[in-house]
Amino acid sequence: MPLHKRETGEIFQKRLQQLLQRSGMNKAQFAESIGVNRSALAQLLSEQLLRLPRAETLSRIAQAHKVSIDWLLGLSQDEHLLSELSSVMEIEQVANGQHTKLGQWHRDAMGYKIRYVPSNLPDSLMIEEVIDYERQYTQIPIEIRKLETNSQLAYNRITESEMEVCLPLQRLKLLAQGVGIWEELPKALRRQQLEHIQKLVDDLYPSYRLFLYDGRKIFSAPLTVFGSQRAVIYVGDMYVVINSLEEIRALTRHFERLIRNAAVNPHESAAFIQALLAKYG
Questions:
Q1: Model pTM greater than 0.85?
Q2: Cβ pair 111, 74 in contact under 8 A
Q3: Average pLDDT over all residues of the chain
Q4: What is the helix (H) or strand (E) element at residue 195, kind and residue range?
Q5: Which of 69, 148, 194, 215 would you label with 11, given CA atoms 20 to 30 Å apart?
Q6: Could you tell me which CATH number the domain at 5-83 has?
Q7: Per DSSP, what are the bridge partners of residue 265?
Q8: Confidence label for 83 from pLDDT (cuts 50, 70 and 90)
Q9: Where is the HTH cro/C1-type domain (predicted)?
Q10: What sections of 24-109 are H helices per DSSP?
Q11: What tens digit of pLDDT does each residue of 211-263 get?
């Protein structure tokens, strides 16, 4: 069961106090070690405020005191900083019946902007019937796909979350027309899926922003940039996980080029989908 914000704040305070006590530092020294002043540290430790730090501060606390962000936020009982063991690049194989690490990566990037180019439709915007239909084209088990969809949608509904999604506009046109991989999907389900996307991009805006670019003019492989934490490129049943800051920044610049070349901007996405529904029924 997900923690409420107050519970998360209480756990964070207890664990921050624990780090302070075992560090052997006074409060001024501890504050300096995590890059804040004494006043900011006092606020973080105040039982009246129950204030969570900014993502950058949370990351500095984890790095300075060799603990995981998940442990600080009460998402894990394992305090060890696993990221220290990460290489510059890793291959993550998705074996049959195994969960992927997407949910973990989203939690690690809490408070950072996530940039996402899906391999087909955005996971968090898909209805169950389309996930069922799409399973013939994916090697990831269906129950895991549904779990990831629900998990990502829950993440998108968090106030502090921020996600930008870039998608070729032709992908939505093909869905509306029922051609390509969608030719066997009933028209009623295609319409239901488009209406679902239209509703969610409207409801989740502006924290969730959908950009549509012309796939004939610019190309992108499927990828997700999880803030400055990591980037992931999707290759069939494998994820190429990139942990080097320099390469993460390069992929971020690539994503920004997609945004600059967008033919449909986030505030126009719902209207674009409505036009497809009107044209193709």
A1: no
A2: no
A3: 85
A4: helix 187-204
A5: 148
A6: 1.10.260.40
A7: none
A8: very low
A9: 16-72
A10: 27-33, 38-45, 55-64, 69-72, 102-108
A11: 999 999 999 999 999 988 899 999 877 889 998 878 888 999 999 999 999 99
